[in-house]
Amino acid sequence: MKVKIINCLEDNFSYILIDEKSLDACVVDPGEAQPILKYIEKNKINLKYILNTHHHHDHIGGNNILKSKFGAKILAFKDDKERIPKIDFFLDDKQIWKDGPFEFKVIHVPGHTSGHICFSFFNEKIIFTGDTLFSLGCGRIFEGSYNDMFNSLSKLKKLSPETKIYFGHEYTLNNSIFCDKFDKNNSELKIKIANIKKKLDKGMPTVPSTLKEELDCNIFLRAKNLKEFSKLRDLKDNF
Ligand SMILES: [Fe+2]
Known about the structure:
The chain has helices at about 35-45, 55-60, 65-70, 145-155, 170-180, 185-200, 210-215, 220, 225-235; strands at about 1-10, 10-20, 25-30, 45-50, 75, 90, 95-100, 100-110, 115-120, 125-130, 135, 135-140, 165, 210. It is an alpha/beta fold. Helix 5 runs antiparallel to helix 6 (about 185-200). About 45% of the residues are buried. Bound molecules: fe (ii) ion. Fe (ii) ion binds near residues 54, 56, 112 and 131. Fe (ii) ion (FE2) binds near residues 54 and 112.
């Protein structure tokens, strides 16, 4: 299975997951259609599914065009049926969904939005975290409580540490400045920041990260309790 990273809009990441044998593919969070269309047509890929982590426009903006052009089916959380148009398959928390080479578990992670889900491709140890977990950061809390987001991140912390994390935005450099300011003596973080800068200098994306790196370096995952987490979230919102 190959993951092709597609830059969308200003700083969004969309991902095309391709089964290299059949060239069947899923796209995760197509913020816009054009760059995805271009890649699919150039590489003769069969787009079968559109996976949405949540309803924000910069994650679903390409849905309609991709669905009508390729007949791809839309998969999203069941409670988002009023705000993600034309869903074909309604997903539930902890559901395992499988078709051919594509098999993932749904992890409901409310906080950024009430219907936010992550797609855990457990066979490949890959997870798409949308706007819940970023490299060195987490999403803003728009529709939940601090407790919701803290619990959602706790669910992700239980995955295998070598899991590769594909997140929704290239916010990593800015996030690293925040982590560095409030976690000064973290030597793992210093190594991670050096690697991030190397990648960005070469024009490369900072995605994917790994859960191990995030457990070691991401200040929001290192928060020991809800109080500490809430304080950090407040500080970051005003950073
Ligand atoms: Fe969002």
